[in-house]
# Entry
Amino acid sequence: MLPMRVCGEPDSGFHKLSLQRAPPSNSSLTAMTKDLAKIDDISRYLSYILRHEPEAIGLHLDTEGWADIDSLIACANRHGQPIDKAIVHAVVETNKKKRFAISDDCRRIRAVQGHSTSTVQRTFPEMVPPEVLYHGTATRFLESIREQGLKAGSRHHVHLSLDISTAIAVGKRYGKPVVLEIQASKMSRNGFKFFRAENDVWLTDAVPPQFINIID
Ligand code: HQG
# Structure
C-alpha cells in the first residue's frame, strides 16, 4: 500500500479503497470497481491539465509545474469536470507510477514529469545514470529513430526507464512495442546530462543513434 498523506482532506469512500482490510462484499466490490474507474478517468484528466493544457480550464501553473489545489478544483468544476479534494488525493495516492505529487504544505499539486506546456520548465537534479537505461517505443518509429536518434517530441525530455518491463508497457501505447537499450553511462561520459524525476523516470534531452541498441 502506498503511504497515505495526512492533509486533512475530507473523508470519503475513495479512501476506504486503500484502508479496507476485510474481504469486500459483492456490492462493495462493484462500488470499488466504479471508484477505480473514476480514479483512472480523473488521473487522465489531471495528466492532460497538469502536463499539457492548463489553459484549457484557465489554471495557472508555476514554472515548477505546481498548481493550487483549490484553484484546480474550482477551474475543473467550472469547465464541466466535477472533482473534489478527496478524489484528487485518491488519484495521487493510488497512482502506481507516482505520476503526481502534492506539496509538503498540502496546498499544491503537480505532475512529476512528462510536461509539454511551455509554462512549465521543471528543474530536476542532474544524476549520473546507470550503465544502461531503456526506452519503449513502437516498431513503426524505428526507421526514423535509427536516423535521428530519440527526440523529446512535444514533451520536454526523452523518457527512459530502469527496467525493460516498463519500457514494453510504454511502447505498447503506440503499437507493436520494441525496447531500445540506451548506453546511458557512455552518453554521460560524453557530456550528455541525465536527470531523475522523483518517481524514478530518467530524463535526457535527446539520444543520438550511436548510443541506441535495439533489443530483439
Ligand atoms: C517516439 C508515459 C520517431 C518515442 C510513459 C515515443 C512515459 C520518435 C514517441 C512518458 C523519435 C513520443 C513518456 C524519432 C522519439 N522518430 N519517433 N526520432 N524519437 N520517438 O508519449 O516516451 O503513463 O511523448 O519513442 O510511461 O512514449 O503518461 O513519450 O514513442 O514515461 O505517466 O515518439 O509517458 O507516462 O511519445 O512516454 P511520448 P514516451 P504516463
